[in-house]
From TrEMBL:
Superkingdom classification of source: Eukaryota
Matching InterPro entries: ARM-type_fold (IPR016024), CWC22_splicing_factor (IPR050781), MIF4G-like_typ-3 (IPR003890)
Lineage: Eukaryota, Metazoa, Chordata, Craniata, Vertebrata
Predominant localisation class: nucleus
Name recorded for this polypeptide: Nucleolar MIF4G domain-containing protein 1
Keywords for the protein's UniProt record, in alphabetical order: Nucleus
Any one GO cellular component localisation term in the record: nucleolus
Location(s) in or outside the cell: Nucleus, Nucleolus
Amino acid sequence: YVPPQVRRAQETLDDKKREELGRLKKMVNGLINRLSEPNLSSISGQMEELYMANSRKDMNDTLTDILMNACVTAVAMPTRLVMEHVLLVSILHHNVGIEVGAHFLEAVVKKFDELCKNDAEGKECENLLALIAHLYNFHVVHCLLIFDILKKLVSTFTEKEIELILFLLKNVGFSLRKDDALALKELITEAQRKASTAEKKFQDQTRVRFMLETMLALRNNDMRKIPGYDPEPVERLRKLQRTLVRSSGSGKDTQLRVSLESLLSADQVGRWWIVGSSWSGAPMISDTNSKTQQKLHLGKVSSKIMELARKQRMNTDIRRSIFCVLMTSEDFMDAFEKLIK
């Protein structure tokens, strides 16, 4: 039971909160609408001030909603527009804190997974992939996630997936080659295997052939073979990013090294990639196995050692186990082996 006066106070608080969020949304929306390469510096500065003035959660939610509405549409978005939006996220990720990029990335990846499962008709999947690709281009996320997505697409291997693989490789292929050439080579081998087994399945063979040619051009580091490939816009925005990011750690150490599986199961197993995001849900590792093992080890120890352990106040199973191992080992190697067990 909630007394009327408390209920009234809560309602006014909710209204106040709603009003504040509405005002915040208008301000962020205004900034995002004006976003372009020349004024990126001033807009990122204003966004940082908003982050300082409001709660991080409210800002992250608002920014993610507005960017998703702006960039995820049924028609293909202009590449430059997507790049500028992601560059803003990247600057905030480096200057404000990694939870900004992490929150946005998680929302994008979950939406992408959902749309892939539902076979969306429009260009939403391409737009979401473009966001993920540029998050990687601007050092928000590690290549591990991109490889996970590519592996997933190669394993499904329908015509829609081939389009998405081509789209992603065109955007980030040469960066992937630089970061992890071996993983790219394995991926290409897997794609070739899939293509040879699925040849009868497709009416239109040219897309598959074109994808394999693109992959070979990547493997041989031959940029001319990829039509419409132009690294210049990304390089120009990366230069701009270097001037706008304050901390010296603008490169690899702030990249989120998180896998696709971790992002999709974040609600069940917690978000280990965000500092301070400790989680008290179901434990990741069940404790039953270790307890039985401890009891097994204790069974082999003489009563004399157990008495010594009691005198030394070894009052838990794990302490007694360690004490017994140390007292009964022949040498340091033996002790090490037993402790590891």
